[in-house]
Amino acid sequence: MLDHPKDFSFETFSGNRGLDQEEPPIFEIGRTDTSGVDIEEPAHLEPRLGALERKGPIGLPGLSEPEAMRHYVRLSRKNYSIDAGLYPLGSCTMKHNPRLNEKIARLAGFADLHPLQPQSTAQGALALMEELSRWLLTLTGMSAIALSPKAGAHGELCGLMAIESALAARGEAQTRKVVLIPQSAHGTNPASAALLGFQPRVIEAGADGVVSEEAVAKALGPDVAAIMLTNPNTCGLFERNIVAIARRVHEAGGYFYCDGANFNAIAGVARPGDMGVDAMHLNLHKTFSTPHGGGGPGSGPVVFSERLAPFAPVPFLLREGETLRLVEHGDGAQSFGRLTAFHGQFGTFVRALAYILSHGADGLAQASRDAVLSANYLRVALRDVMTQPFGDRLCMHEVLFDDSFLEGTGVSTLDFAKAMIDEGYHPMTIYFPLVVHGAMLIEPTESESKRSLDLFVATMRDLIASAKRGETRRFTEAPRHAPRRRLDETAAARKPVLRWSAS
Amino acid sequence: MRYLPLTDVDRTQMREAIGVADFAALYADVPSELLLEAPLDLPRAKSEIEVERLLSAMAKRNLSAASAPFFIGAGAYRHHIPASVDHLIQRSEFLTSYTPYQPEISQGTLQYLFEFQTQVAMLTGMEIANASMYDGSTACAEAALMAHRITKRRKAILSGGLHPHYADVLRTISHFAGDEIVALAPDVRAREDIASAIDDSVSCVILQTPDVFGNLRDLAPIAEACHRHGALLVAVFTEAVSLGLLKSPGEMGADITVGEGQSLGNPLSFGGPYLGLFATRQSHLRQTPGRLIGETVDADGRRGYVVTLSAREQHIRRDKATSNICTNSNLCALAFSIHLSLLGEAGLRRLARANHASAVDLVDRLASVAGVETLNESFFNEFTLRVPGDAARLVEAMAEQGVLAGVPVSRLLPDAGLDDLLIVASTEVDTVEDREAFVAAMRGAL
Lengths: 503, 446
Fold this sequence. Notes:
The complex is a heterodimer.
Chain A: H1 26-29, H2 65-76, H3 99-105, H4 108-111, H5 123-140, E1 144-146, H6 152-169, E2 178-182, H7 188-195, E3 199-203, H8 213-219, E4 224-230, H9 242-251, E5 255-260, E6 279-282, E7 302-304, E8 316-320, E9 323-327, H10 346-382, E10 399-401, H11 413-422, E11 429-430, E12 440-442, H12 450-468, H13 473-476, H14 489-494
Parallel strand pairs in A: 2-3, 2-4, 4-5, 5-6
Antiparallel strand pairs in A: 1-7, 6-7, 8-9, 10-12, 11-12
Chain B: H1 8-18, H2 23-26, H3 48-60, H4 83-89, H5 92-95, H6 107-124, E1 128-129, H7 136-151, E2 155-158, H8 164-177, E3 180-183, E4 204-208, H9 220-228, E5 232-237, E6 256-260, E7 276-280, E8 292-297, E9 303-308, H10 314-317, H11 330-366, E10 373-374, E11 382-386, H12 391-400, E12 407-408, H13 409-412, E13 421-425, H14 432-445
Parallel strand pairs in B: 2-3, 2-4, 4-5, 5-6
Antiparallel strand pairs in B: 1-7, 6-7, 8-9, 10-11, 11-13, 12-13
């Protein structure tokens, strides 16, 4: 075992450890009279502010440019990133972020464009939105698209709003208030449904990890507005009964919302439109690699079936000969209205289209196949030492293990994850989906070389052997080699300190 | 394909290891009738040069703010972004990391969000702030929902100075959530009587300052009226730089303050991604939506940060969550925070004064244009003009002369009969020559 870093031989005067440097908050290094931006003071100014001018101090610290560079560079080095290593966070799709996409998004013709400038002066931007729409509609086999949703969860709202509008047009909005949601769904699904006044009704998956036609049929009734199904699902499995489920839902008068978070497994390989889907969001930051940025911004365009297309939100694009027009007001039509100011996450549209054009239809399909291939490669390489909740079977782009293999070792899923940090890996998604005990959801994506996958397997096997040998402290005391050791989350929640204060 | 590391030899070896003969066998769980037989009718892969050529051509078809005297605002503003901001946010560790699920290796993100929360709280004069939301308009809708939860009432009054897109977003959410909206008529001169619309059934008043027409609003009397009736005041701003010069919403009694943070650190980018700022009182903490970062210590007693109070959030509470929001607008929040750290209080105040001075100068120049009237008694860096005839046509005509003149009110409110109104913004990036060009182009077009 390694010595505990508290051991005095590891202590340094500064608190730094070589390249791992401590960095206090800006409030302890900046000064309110310092600035890293030179702005000329207006020569003479007679304010037109009425009586609303600020009098008191704000307290905001300033940093000179060198200080700011050092502060943020030091902070950056306390983060794990895809660029630095395998980031197998299941359901999050941490794939490579091409820098070409960043370069294109920064062209003045895109980045320095105002959403409300005359549309005649932004036809190139509208053309980009049209081209992205064409790709997304063709890839999904759907009829209409709303580009404006800001993230996946916002897309869920968008889809459910279109569904409720369609029900209202049929006079059934008041009677159909139930949304069927499998237990394994992302938490956003029930939260989105509840926000709009729907009651989530949980449906159980079978022993094989997927939802059966019978389970859905049993839950259906005249009170059901829709089903929300993630496909491939959060257990990394394709919902193989999807066509029959969609048929049942439609026969019962409901709509089919598909959570498209995992579209990256099937892009270019199969189309949700062929599966009976009525609405689905696409996470551009996942499947189409607009970067995750530490947790956002996301981007969640929604594609619609013909049945829901008329209810899509504003704005939407219309082509009038050579001219593109962005329709920004409903004008009394069936559109359910506006979801956000302006037109959506345009900067991510640029990045997504650059990603899509780079891959082409062939490259997108290959990326999907490589993602599935890599996940299955990890599955077979680990199946003899880890345990799979639904038996040893093919998975899609991510492979799910439970914690049975750790039974009796004194090592929990959390401990195991923390030991992976010491080995230089970001842990997989843990304790999600909730249907599996001590879940570990591994998504390698298509961005890993075989060498990288093999190293990961070797490391995982070594960790597992170590846990089984009873080297518990390697896990329970991990991480040791991270900028911080385990943090006290209970204390943080008990007495929340959400802002810096001088004390 | 340059982004895919696996070679065909790798793929064959991996398929053999798995025991599948081909890719179809790998997708055995997908019913065969769903698998595409032929590639979709879409173009093939392109080299970096080809993609750059294609998309640059699209970019060139747009008239960018950099290439014309530029005076458009109405919820998104053009400001100078220091070069170091864009450099720093492209650090791999910021750009290509995700939600800080593992705090031990996410301290960079967690610390800058903690700093961001503090900066937002200071700037707005509020006690706490969250780690950002999608944008100003959705933050505003979340504020209304939060007010409903706190007051257990379901009626929001919208000021007629609220950005029409924000009002539309509120209408959409309220319609589906079954809440009530009372939207006051568009209020170009800030003369509406909000106080008399408030009674004991009202959950919140949503009031923007500077309002969409550029008027500065005193929130204090409305806050007082709200509190008399057990209602909350939701203060809204779309121009964060204004807070460098104006009384903060907290100072004037706001209970929740929401705003658009794009002005600091983030390019216009045709409308997004931006970031929503969300701040409130400590006492409303448990009803606050979105991600919150808190300070704590690690096993060695060293200061560190974690995502906290997650029990409010959808991944734990599911249908009982305070919001369905999952992401924040993290990278945009970082850009905001870096820009504000670079400015500091002194820099922010200077920046705000430079903006105000620019707008004052333009208003003064416009006084000499016959038939054009500035409607504002007070303003920050944006104001509304009454022009002879149709403002939208005027804007098109000025665009043909290479000046991006502003937002015709009819673009935001097509049915309000306000077709002769033009919202004009002037920021620190405008030069005297730009403002001269504006006045000349307007004279020429009228």
